């Protein structure tokens, strides 16, 4: 916090909550006070000491790797406020490890796990007054790793910037989750970047998503590129199906993002006594499922109300008695400190 002026520090210490209508928070950017910036030093082949700086626009060379060749990664995680005002992070080391995996695929240097977690902690503490009151939202944290050095030719950048900013958010999707199966456009291909959180993964789904929303759907469910017959994931979420005592989810083998919420839900469901399996799931099995739900950092866990494919619409059970609701309550209870964290997933920051 060394870059805060004395006056800023005094005001920050006094401020308990920002002037926000917490009950009207959606999932959009609310500019907070500070961000964290750390630059890679190519001469020393390591990241320099990062600093907390006022939230502001950044300058980039028009020829930077992120702008010209999309050499970039991002992560997403949340900070929650407990009833006693303590603030919890949820499994930040998992985000750090996923960024390291992605950085290796994109030929980028990556912060160490310790640097990543320290940056996230400092960003949350600097924006402490923006962490919503208990039960009224969360502080969404967005770490970015970007190739910022200039390149005219196609090659990895020589300079990199690691940046962390945050925004208070409410629910990602308040309405029903009605999915349209996309059978012409594919989100990822084997050997591509579908299994890492690369910036390249998201804008290619915009057209399918926009068209689906224009028809009244809330998201798109993509099929695999090889056979066009197996489900993979939504535009920004993993998917699960329930039949009997078996919960199935597509295998994260390079075309599916290994979600941290996904991983956590698999562990919780196993603890509930369900058989949890990762495998190829033909689209036909989705129509035989008793329950379908999606997971992700933004939405946490949410029941799917319907899936439409080839003009056929199947509706699923939603509401209080669903497994999705039980998993959601259990996971958010851990994240917000209402449930005992027996798995060591949360990290208190002060």
Automatic annotation (TrEMBL):
Its cofactor is pyridoxal 5'-phosphate. InterPro entries: Aminotrans_IV, Aminotrans_IV_CS, Aminotransferase-like, B_amino_transII, BCAT-like_C, BCAT-like_N, BCAT_family. Its EC number is 2.6.1.42. It catalyses: L-leucine + 2-oxoglutarate = 4-methyl-2-oxopentanoate + L-glutamate; L-valine + 2-oxoglutarate = 3-methyl-2-oxobutanoate + L-glutamate; L-isoleucine + 2-oxoglutarate = (S)-3-methyl-2-oxopentanoate + L-glutamate. Keywords: Amino-acid biosynthesis, Aminotransferase, Branched-chain amino acid biosynthesis, Pyridoxal phosphate, Transferase. The keyword Transferase applies. It comes from the Eukaryota. Pfam families: Aminotran_4. Belongs to the class-IV pyridoxal-phosphate-dependent aminotransferase family. This is Branched-chain-amino-acid aminotransferase. It comes from Hibiscus sabdariffa.
